[in-house]
Amino acid sequence: MKSADIARNALGDEHIWTSEIYSQIALMYQEEGLSQLASLWIRKSFVSCYKAVGISHKGLQIVYTHLKNIEGNIDSPLANAPIEYVASKIKQLMQT
Length: 96
Hints:
This protein is mainly alpha-helical. 77% of the residues lie in helices and 0% in strands. It has one domain (2-95). The protein is built from five helices and no strands. The chain is globular and about 35 Å long. The two termini are 24 Å apart. The mean pLDDT is 90.
């Protein structure tokens, strides 16, 4: 997505606004019924937000809510993972 590239180039990958763009892309794909693509983008959003603002930030809580919903649609183990373990589980899933 071009908007994601622009945000990443201007702000970096670990920025709350970049995370917001990733999240909006995920929600757009979810609305279109493209759950696998939505999952990819919400995971990127979560990791970006987690690195940018940390676990206790309200923004991460919102992304986490979206992540649980999207991941639940594809029967992902992330749907039930506690927030403090999601970033490491995403990393594990990306390595497989």
